[in-house]
């Protein structure tokens, strides 16, 4: 009998053991999956392929059966000749078009959370709250089948929506995902062992209320990343982390994405952009018994000597002084301009009423 090369067998096993949900992203369109249709003007609509039904618009209809079995990237026509480009939605497309019960974490922020939070394959992660499941999908893709994501949500209806969205994009339940109902700070310490979690991701109104729970379950060196909407939340969370002493100095930022218009030589920024959506703040758990460092900061104004303050003059920083004479002349010029405009307006009004003065 011929011996089987273990390396060849391992390679074959890897090819057949695809990550969960990967098979649904390949091959021809199948009934029940979502397809993104783009018309000739660039307008996009997402439909769920259902045999025997049709997609209707003011420009005719397109039978779903026309798409089922076609390769991804096909061009199809409606009954009146309207052309559509058919592709599977990308994750960013899916998140913005999926059913939602709460505001979603935008793709630009989810990408930052995955990268700056160092979410890696096999990591053990907890998150709260789940909302509509947008961030959960990104986290599951990052941790993979061998990882672990435990999501906490207070509202059952949100959990149901998130569950449906996750199962839609992964073509079924994900083996690494667990979702629980209840308050995060109570449930996480009851369900997760101390120091057993690698990463904590919180998207909630008051993350500072979860300090003890996060410090309990997060392993030394683990990352805690917060997504908050307002400056007040950001400030209060940062000060609570500093006062607690079990974490490193927090680091915060926001990201903005501006698209570009590309058409021939008309290459310019888009007039609209995805600007502020939320703030991200990251900190790390220190070892037990260690107190976080108080970072040395620049001295405030009161810490400077008087001679330093005396040297801090407008001229010293390159600001050109303006003489009183020039200021008076500028004031006269401004008044003269205003008076001239008034005179012209009055003359136009008099002419309209036939009351011009005689010369």
TrEMBL record:
<feature type="domain" description="tRNA (adenine(58)-N(1))-methyltransferase catalytic subunit TRM61 C-terminal">
    <location>
        <begin position="96"/>
        <end position="260"/>
    </location>
</feature>
<feature type="compositionally biased region" description="Polar residues">
    <location>
        <begin position="334"/>
        <end position="346"/>
    </location>
</feature>
<dbReference type="Pfam" id="PF08704">
    <property type="entry name" value="GCD14"/>
</dbReference>
<dbReference type="GO" id="GO:0031515">
    <property type="term" value="C:tRNA (m1A) methyltransferase complex"/>
</dbReference>
<feature type="compositionally biased region" description="Low complexity">
    <location>
        <begin position="21"/>
        <end position="30"/>
    </location>
</feature>
<keyword id="KW-0819">tRNA processing</keyword>
<protein>
    <submittedName>
        <fullName>SAM-dependent methyltransferase</fullName>
    </submittedName>
</protein>
<keyword id="KW-0949">S-adenosyl-L-methionine</keyword>
<dbReference type="GO" id="GO:0160107">
    <property type="term" value="F:tRNA (adenine(58)-N1)-methyltransferase activity"/>
</dbReference>
<dbReference type="GO" id="GO:0030488">
    <property type="term" value="P:tRNA methylation"/>
</dbReference>
<feature type="region of interest" description="Disordered">
    <location>
        <begin position="320"/>
        <end position="359"/>
    </location>
</feature>
<keyword id="KW-0489">Methyltransferase</keyword>
<feature type="region of interest" description="Disordered">
    <location>
        <begin position="1"/>
        <end position="30"/>
    </location>
</feature>
<keyword id="KW-0808">Transferase</keyword>
<feature type="compositionally biased region" description="Basic and acidic residues">
    <location>
        <begin position="350"/>
        <end position="359"/>
    </location>
</feature>
<dbReference type="Pfam" id="PF14801">
    <property type="entry name" value="TrmI-like_N"/>
</dbReference>
<dbReference type="InterPro" id="IPR049470">
    <property type="entry name" value="TRM61_C"/>
</dbReference>
<dbReference type="InterPro" id="IPR014816">
    <property type="entry name" value="tRNA_MeTrfase_Gcd14"/>
</dbReference>
<dbReference type="InterPro" id="IPR029063">
    <property type="entry name" value="SAM-dependent_MTases_sf"/>
</dbReference>
């Amino acid at each position: 009998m011929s011996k089987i090369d273990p390396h060849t067998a391992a390679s074959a096993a890897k090819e057949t053991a695809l990550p969960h949900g990967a098979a649904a992203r390949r091959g021809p369109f199948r009934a029940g999956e979502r397809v993104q249709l783009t018309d000739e003007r660039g307008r996009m609509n997402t439909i769920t392929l259902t045999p025997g039904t049709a997609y209707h618009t003011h420009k005719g209809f397109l039978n779903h059966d026309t798409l089922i079995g076609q390769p991804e990237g096909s061009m199809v026509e409606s009954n009146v000749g309207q052309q559509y480009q058919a592709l599977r939605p990308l994750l960013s497309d899916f998140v913005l078009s999926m059913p939602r019960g709460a505001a979603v974490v935008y793709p630009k922020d989810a990408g930052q959370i995955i990268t700056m939070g160092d979410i890696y394959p096999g990591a053990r992660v907890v998150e709260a709250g789940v909302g509509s499941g947008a961030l959960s999908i990104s986290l599951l893709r990052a941790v993979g089948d061998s990882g672990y994501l435990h999501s906490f949500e207070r509202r059952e209806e949100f959990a149901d929506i998130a569950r449906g969205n996750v199962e839609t994009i992964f073509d079924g339940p994900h083996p690494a995902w667990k979702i629980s109902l209840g308050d995060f700070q109570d449930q996480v310490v009851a369900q997760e062992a101390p120091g057993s979690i690698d990463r904590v991701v919180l998207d909630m109104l008051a993350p500072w209320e979860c300090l003890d729970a996060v410090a309990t379950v997060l392993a030394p060196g683990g990352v805690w990343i917060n997504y908050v909407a307002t400056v007040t939340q950001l400030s209060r969370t940062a000060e609570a982390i500093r006062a607690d002493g079990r974490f490193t100095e927090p680091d915060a930022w926001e990201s903005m994405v501006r698209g570009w218009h590309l058409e021939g030589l008309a290459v310019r920024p888009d007039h609209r952009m995805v600007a502020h959506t939320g703030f991200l703040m990251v900190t790390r758990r220190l070892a037990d018994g260690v107190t976080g460092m108080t970072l040395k900061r620049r001295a405030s104004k009161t810490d400077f000597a008087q001679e330093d303050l005396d040297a801090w003059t407008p001229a010293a920083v390159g600001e050109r002084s303006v003489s009183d004479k020039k200021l008076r002349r500028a004031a006269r010029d401004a008044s003269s301009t205003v008076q001239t405009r008034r005179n012209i307006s009055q003359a136009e009004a008099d002419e309209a009423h036939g009351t011009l003065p005689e010369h």
